[in-house]
């Protein structure tokens, strides 16, 4: 009984003198853990822009170049493979620059650096599945398995997003799942590969970007 | 009753030291400049707090070279991890008591 009273007295004294410090300490610890391990400036606009670029790219690929493989190893007219490779590269670069641009703007507003230990980790985590996928797709194309290129790119991009979830907003993991599902569907129904590609890289990115923008940035 | 005050670690009273321990709790290793950016402190200030934590053997330094440039990385020791976790627990206890 006495001990309880003493205990209470000590705690109350501590409570009065140190009250602010404790909860402030906890919130500083939490914020430091988050800031030092997660790159949180990833903007919803990056997703929206990447999605729009991908939709435009797939429209161009299918309707202008005429790239819409109906089987795993289709016979393509002369020059189509070159055109589609250039288009895919341009789409990738444009989408990447848009993401960096919008995220840099958001990082600046949040007073964070875009290049720090957290964003470095994020890039490393994403690079391993992406580079693996890139090499696999190149080999597949060289072996004539051109119909696999679009769905494989979805699958490996999805895996890289899933990996990225540890070092940025965790919602990107859901986006990763969706890309993987679209990719697997694309492998199953090769003739719909470009539609699933537009669905994953285009529509899913836009939906994700809008959700993130409305939830966190508006 | 002894538990409460006993576990709040004096070494972590400074904001900078608490920050270093928090950042190293979620990162395997961090170099000096990364820590400096996250904490927004001067070189001298950070160095003195790092030295204090090293002296307690809460963190250790790993020196290597990237080309000819020295690259210094810090990581938390098992002892440091334990001390930081105990400190967190004590903080949580204090706060839950306040409610």
Structure commentary:
The complex is a heterodimer of chains A (218) and B (99). Chain A has 218 residues and is an all-alpha fold. Chain A has seven helices and no strands. The radius of gyration of chain A is 24 Å and the shape is elongated. The mean pLDDT of chain A is 90. The mean pLDDT of chain B is 87. Chain B contains five helices and three strands, in the order H-H-E-H-H-E-E-H. In chain B, strands 1-3-2 form a three-stranded antiparallel β-sheet. Chain B is an alpha+beta fold and 99 residues long. Chain B has one domain (4-94): Winged helix-like DNA-binding domain superfamily/Winged helix DNA-binding domain (Arc Repressor Mutant, subunit A, Orthogonal Bundle), CATH 1.10.10.10. The interface between A and B is medium-sized, with 24 and 24 residues.
Q: Give the CATH level 1 class of chain B.
A: Mainly Alpha
Largest interface: A-B, 24 and 24 residues
Q: The CATH topology of chain B, please?
A: Arc Repressor Mutant, subunit A
Please give the share of residues in helix of chain A: over 70%
Gyration radius over CA of chain A: 24 Å
Estimate the helix proportion of chain B, in percent.
Answer: 55-70%
Q: Can you say what the CATH homologous superfamily of chain B is?
A: Winged helix-like DNA-binding domain superfamily/Winged helix DNA-binding domain
Low-confidence segments of chain A, given as residue ranges, are: none
Structural class of chain B: alpha+beta
> Within the largest sheet of chain B, what's the order of strands?
1-3-2
Number-wise, the strands of chain B total 3
* Overall pLDDT score of chain A: 90
Strand content of chain A: under 5%
Q: pLDDT average of chain B, as an integer?
A: 87
Contiguous helical run count of chain B: 5
């Amino acid at each position: 009984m006495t001990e309880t009273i003493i205990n209470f007295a000590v705690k109350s004294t501590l409570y009065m003198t140190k009250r602010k410090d404790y909860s402030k300490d906890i919130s500083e610890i939490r914020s430091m853990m988050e800031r030092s391990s997660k790159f949180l400036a990833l903007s919803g606009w990056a997703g929206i822009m990447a999605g729009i670029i991908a939709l435009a790219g797939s429209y161009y690929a299918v309707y202008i170049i005429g790239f819409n493989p109906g089987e795993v190893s289709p016979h393509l007219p002369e020059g189509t493979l070159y055109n589609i490779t250039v288009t895919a590269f341009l789409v990738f670069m444009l989408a990447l620059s848009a993401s960096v641009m919008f995220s840099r703007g958001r990082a600046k507003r949040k007073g964070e650096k875009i290049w720090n230990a957290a964003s470095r980790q994020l890039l490393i985590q994403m690079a391993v599945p992406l580079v693996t996928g890139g090499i696999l797709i190149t080999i597949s194309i060289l072996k004539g398995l051109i119909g696999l290129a679009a769905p494989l790119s979805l699958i490996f991009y999805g895996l890289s997003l899933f990996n990225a979830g540890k070092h940025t907003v965790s919602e990107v993991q859901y986006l990763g799942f969706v890309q993987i599902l679209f990719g697997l569907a694309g492998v199953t129904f090769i003739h719909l590969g470009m539609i699933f590609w537009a669905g994953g890289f285009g529509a899913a990115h836009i939906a994700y970007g809008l959700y993130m923008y409305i939830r966190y940035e508006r | 009753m002894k538990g409460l005050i006993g576990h709040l670690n004096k070494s972590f009273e400074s904001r900078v030291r608490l920050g270093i321990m928090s950042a190293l709790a979620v990162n395997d290793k961090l170099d000096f400049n990364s820590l400096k950016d996250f904490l927004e402190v001067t070189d001298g200030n950070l160095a003195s707090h790092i030295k204090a934590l090293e002296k307690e053997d809460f963190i250790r330094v790993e020196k290597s070279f990237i080309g000819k440039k020295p690259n210094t990385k810090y990581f938390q020791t098992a002892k440091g991890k334990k001390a930081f976790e105990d400190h967190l627990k004590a903080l949580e206890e204090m706060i839950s008591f306040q409610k």
